[in-house]
Amino acid sequence: MNENISLTIANRWKRDLVVILEPWADAYTIPPEKKMTMSGIFDQERNNFEVEYEGNHITVWWPGDEPEMHIDGKVAIPGPQIFPNDD
């Protein structure tokens, strides 16, 4: 069974937050005080999605077709996997 879902991640830190979208290994950088929303078709037969916090980045495992990504309402383009230093 498929359904539309969305997930919002807010960056409350004073530095960039990197979000890795798996299984595509796409990296998105959320600037301080901004939010990223991912939305798309969720395939419940594949399993639930998973979010992992890893100190200097977050990894989201998305089960389904690649979601649409927006940062503060603008289409987000993946970039390089460059992680900020832990403070």
Describe the protein in words:
The structure is a single chain. 15% of the residues are buried. The mean pLDDT is 87. The strands form 2 sheets. Strands 1-4-7-8 form a 4-stranded antiparallel β-sheet, with no helix packed on it. The protein has a 4-stranded mixed β-sheet with strand order 3-2-6-5, with no helix packed on it. It contains no helices and 8 strands. It has one domain (2-75). The chain has strands at 2-10, 17-22, 26-30, 35-43, 50-53, 57-61, 68-71, 74-75. Helices cover 0% and strands 51% of the residues. With 87 residues, it is mainly β. It is globular, with a radius of gyration of 13 Å.
Q: What is the C-alpha radius of gyration, as a whole number of Å? A: 13 Å
Principal-axes geometry comes out as globular
Q: What is the mean pLDDT?
A: 87
Structural class: mainly beta
Distance between the termini: 42 Å
SSE succession: EEEEEEEE
Q: In what range is the share of β-strand residues?
A: over 45%
| Count of DSSP strands | 8
Biggest sheet, in brief? 4 strands, antiparallel
User: How are the strands ordered across the major sheet?
Assistant: 1-4-7-8
The count of helical stretches stands at 0
Please estimate the helix content.
under 10%
Supply database-style keywords.
4-stranded mixed sheet; mainly beta
Topology:
Elements: E1 2-10, E2 17-22, E3 26-30, E4 35-43, E5 50-53, E6 57-61, E7 68-71, E8 74-75
